[in-house]
Write the structure tokens for this entry.
Amino acid sequence: MILVIGGTGTTGRAVLQGLHGVPTRALVRTPGNLPPGVEQVVGDAADPGSLRGTLTGVSGVFLAMGNGPRQEEIELGVVAEAARAGVDHLVKLSAPGPADSPVAIARMHHRVEDAVRASGIKHTFLRPYAFFQNLLFHADRIRATGSFPTTTGDTPLNMVDARDVADVAVAALLRKSTGTHLLTGPEAISYPEVAARLTAAGKPIRCVTLTAAELRADLAGAPPWLVDHVLEIQSLATTHPEHPNTVVAQLLGRPARSLDDFLREHARAFGA
């Protein structure tokens, strides 16, 4: 039995779909529309009692918590309970960057990775860069104004399709393979180039470069930790060049999905 924690998220839902036909359980806060065959357990990953019951009979765990102020506390609790339950293998969605990264959430992920190592559980750490799917957060603004903001200017950025990350996770869960994998798409691309490709699809779109202070003001109303995170990762991208790799292709035996294919697939969302 494989337990998926975070199965309603972008990557977790794709993991559930990829595990079709494999005995799979998902811990969810509220019942939802999950893929057929998935056993839903309603509970809270922050509650040790929920975790203990849900981990009964589980040999593998996929852990992908949404970013937030309690993420480290909750993930450490999952690791502790998984070790107590005798889980054989844990696949964790993590983040790129060194242990002393200027990005607070990346440093948090490293601390959880350290806890997994100390637990003795066999493990796979997946460290993807920004998801193509994150571009959809700009879709409403793009349709309304024909533009979206960033502080990264012409800096090329590693992006990857969350479904490729999920496919790597599924392969690791089924093979019980271990390792730490930095995951990117097939190219590094700047946000102005994203705008250019959307424009080529049929609607003029601009990427507007802002200062950090201007973007902070633009994000007013979002949780402060989230605003800090966005600014930290965008600042890091401009000071530490990002370069794509072929890890997804090596692990899956097929090319990583391309941004162009993703933009065509979601052209209607962007108003193209």
